[in-house]
Amino acid sequence: MNKAAHGKSCSIATRLNLYNVVLSIDNFGGAHSSLARLRDLPSVELKLDRSYVAGCTTDGAKQSVCTAAIELAHGFGLTVCAKGVTNVEDLRTVIELGCHSAQGVLFAKPMDSSRFARMRLGRAAASKPPGGIPAATHRA
How far apart are CA 12 and CA 72, in angstroms? Predict the structure, then answer.
């Protein structure tokens, strides 16, 4: 992103914040990541890219990237969501590393809004997410 576009993005994000619209930095670690986004955008959440989350339990390099990104986000006061969680082992790992929430096919496959609404209405509040992880840590 060039300097002018970056400045415009920061300005728009700041104005949105005045209306209580909160922003997440999506796919952090992906192709267009920038530390300037963490520093300048008034975000509340960093979404860790699935390319580092999937397999982070058994891949030391992926786990190192997850750890560094999570610590960096925490340093900026951001919550962290692990994207692309496909198994309970990776879910447990990212939670142990400090992720506040997770999303991925472990919880549900991508779906349109009407199917999502039907699914959420059909789930009782007492339902348990996969792996016995507390409900506050996952996203369907």
Answer: 24
What is residue 129's three-state secondary structure? coil
Element (H, E) at 43: strand 43-48
Look at residue 125 and tell me whether its pLDDT is greater than 50. Answer: no
Write the pLDDT tens digit of every residue in 22-39. Answer: 777 665 665 555 676 677
Q: Taking the domains of the chain in order of start, what are their residue ranges?
A: 3-139
Q: Residue 21 and residue 14: Cα distance in Å, rounded?
A: 9
Architecture of domain 3-139: Alpha-Beta Barrel (3.20)
DSSP H stretches of helix in the chain: 3-18, 35-40, 50-53, 60-75, 88-97, 113-122
